[in-house]
Write a structure and sequence with these properties.
10-stranded mixed sheet, alpha+beta, single chain, 10 strands
Length: 179
């Protein structure tokens, strides 16, 4: 297996179709079947391929500043980690998370951040659940228009400390959309 970092704007039509198939398979009823992003394009992705160059898994990554209790933090957001049905339970998702950890070494990143309904994989890879009241830009996924501002606690929120800053459970302003 080979893991490759791909900048979003460099994804060609063929790879885009492969990513779209994987995302549609993994997020059947909620993922738009006509694009390779949910609300906004990530900055880059890690893609896992088998020996035959068939796409097995993907994860999007989005780097930005957020405001945590009045303090700016630099966050690398993990978006839509998924593995093809035939390749699940083989440790590929954990390998992608490890690749993200390696990428973060000596980078200007305070925290990794993600949302997870099923937290087991992430807890096993050093992430922790946090409770923060979050503020974000609400986007209508279907029409891709702004609906307003959301402000509530989100139970699926998880983080992993990378830099020297400490996490607290105050208000978290995403300064943009939710992943």
């Amino acid at each position: 297996m080979k893991i490759k970092k791909v900048v979003e704007c460099e994804i060609d039509n063929e790879l885009s179709k492969d990513i779209q198939v994987l995302l549609s398979e993994s997020f059947q009823d909620i993922y738009p079947n006509n694009r390779i992003y949910f609300k906004q394009v990530p900055h880059f992705r890690f893609l896992a391929f088998n020996e035959d160059k068939h796409l097995l898994a993907q994860v999007g990554l989005d780097y930005r500043v957020m405001n945590l209790s009045g303090k700016l933090i630099k966050v690398l957001g993990i978006i839509d980690l998924c593995v093809s049905r035939d390749s699940r339970t083989k440790g590929i998702a954990s390998l992608l998370l490890l690749e993200i950890d390696k990428y973060c070494v000596e980078k200007n990143i305070d925290f990794l951040l993600l949302f997870a309904d099923n937290k087991k994989l992430y807890l096993n890879n050093g992430y922790k659940s946090v409770k923060n009241k979050c503020k974000w830009l609400k986007i209508d996924n279907k029409n891709q228009t702004i609906l307003g501002i959301g402000y509530e606690e989100i139970s699926e929120l998880m983080i992993k400390k990378i830099g020297m800053n400490e996490w607290d459970e105050g208000d978290l302003d995403f300064l943009g959309y939710l992943y």
